[in-house]
C-alpha cells in the first residue's frame, strides 16, 4: 500500500486546499455502491486513474474542485460517480428538473459523457439526457418533460431551452463544467454565466480544464467556492 504522498509523487500530482483527504488507491477503498463497483469491474478497470483517486474523496465531501488534467485521464467518471452518489442522497423528483448538470463544449463530447452516464448509472436507475445544437429540439424537450436526473448539455442549446422556459434548473445542486478552457475558447462564456444564474448558489461545482489561462482562472474564481485544486501531470 502506497502512502498518499508517494502516490501523488509517482503521478506528478499536486493537490492544493484545506484538509485534503487522502486519495483512494483502489476501487475497494471508494466505498461506492456495489452496482457501481460491478460496472467498473465489467469495464475491466483495475484501479482508479490518478485524477479519480484524488478527486473522488474530495468530491464525496461535497467540496468544489478545479482539476487541471489532460484528456484521456478518466475525468468523466471522476465527476459522474460522485454525482450519482449526490443524486441518491438528494432523492429529488426528476420531473421538477435535473439535480446534476454537466456542461460540455461539443455535441460529440456531450454524447460521450451521456454514454458513460447511462452505462455506469443504469444499475442505479439514473436517468440522463443530452441537449446539443444541430438536432431537433423535440426529442430533447420530450426527455425533459418525462424528467431526468442528469442533464449533459452544450451551453448554446441549454440556453435556448432555458429561454423557452422548458427546463428548470432550480433543483441543480451538482454542477460540472467539463473542458472549461475549450468552452471559453468557443465563446460560450456569456451562455455559461446565464445558465449558472439559474442554478442555486448552494451547490457543488466541479470544473475541469486542460489549461489554466487567466480567463479560466477568472471564471473559476467567480463560480467556485474555496475549491480544492488538483493538478495532474506537468501543468505549471
Ligand atoms: P478524459 O475526460 O479525462 O479525457 P475519459 O473520462 O473520457 O477521459 O476517459 C478516458 C477513457 O478511460 C475512457 O474510455 C474511460 O472509459 C476509461 N477509464 C475511465 N476510468 C478508468 C479506470 N479507472 N481504469 C481504466 N480505464 C478508465
Ligand atoms: Mg473528458
TrEMBL record:
Residues 56-230 form the Helicase ATP-binding domain. It comes from the Eukaryota. Residues 25-53 form the DEAD-box RNA helicase Q domain. A motif (Q motif) lies at residues 25-53. Belongs to the DEAD box helicase family. This is RNA helicase. It comes from Handroanthus impetiginosus. The lineage of its organism: Eukaryota, Viridiplantae, Streptophyta, Embryophyta, Tracheophyta.
Amino acid at each position: 500500500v502506497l502512502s498518499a504522498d508517494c502516490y501523488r509523487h509517482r503521478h506528478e500530482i499536486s493537490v492544493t486546499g484545506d484538509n485534503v483527504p487522502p486519495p483512494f488507491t483502489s476501487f475497494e477503498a471508494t466505498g461506492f455502491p456495489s452496482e457501481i463497483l460491478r460496472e467498473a469491474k465489467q469495464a475491466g478497470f483495475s484501479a482508479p486513474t490518478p485524477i479519480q483517486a484524488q478527486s473522488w474523496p474530495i468530491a464525496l465531501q461535497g467540496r468544489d474542485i478545479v482539476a487541471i488534467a489532460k484528456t484521456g485521464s478518466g475525468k468523466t467518471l471522476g465527476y459522474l460517480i460522485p454525482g450519482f452518489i449526490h443524486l441518491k442522497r438528494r432523492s429529488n423528483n426528476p420531473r421538477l428538473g435535473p439535480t446534476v448538470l454537466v456542461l460540455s463544449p461539443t455535441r460529440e463530447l456531450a454524447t460521450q459523457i451521456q454514454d458513460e452516464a447511462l452505462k455506469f448509472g443504469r444499475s442505479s436507475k439514473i436517468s440522463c439526457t443530452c441537449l446539443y445544437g444541430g438536432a431537433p429540439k423535440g426529442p430533447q424537450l420530450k426527455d425533459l418533460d418525462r424528467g431526468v436526473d442528469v442533464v449533459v448539455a452544450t451551453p448554446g442549446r441549454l440556453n435556448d431551452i432555458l429561454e423557452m422556459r422548458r427546463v428548470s434548473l432550480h433543483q441543480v445542486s451538482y454542477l460540472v463544467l467539463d473542458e472549461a478552457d475549450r468552452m471559453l475558447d468557443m465563446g460560450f462564456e456569456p451562455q455559461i454565466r446565464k445558465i449558472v444564474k439559474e442554478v442555486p448558489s448552494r451547490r457543488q461545482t466541479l470544473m475541469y480544464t486542460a489549461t489554466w489561462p487567466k480567463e479560466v482562472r477568472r471564471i473559476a474564481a467567480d463560480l467556485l467556492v474555496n475549491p480544492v485544486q488538483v493538478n495532474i501531470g506537468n501543468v505549471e
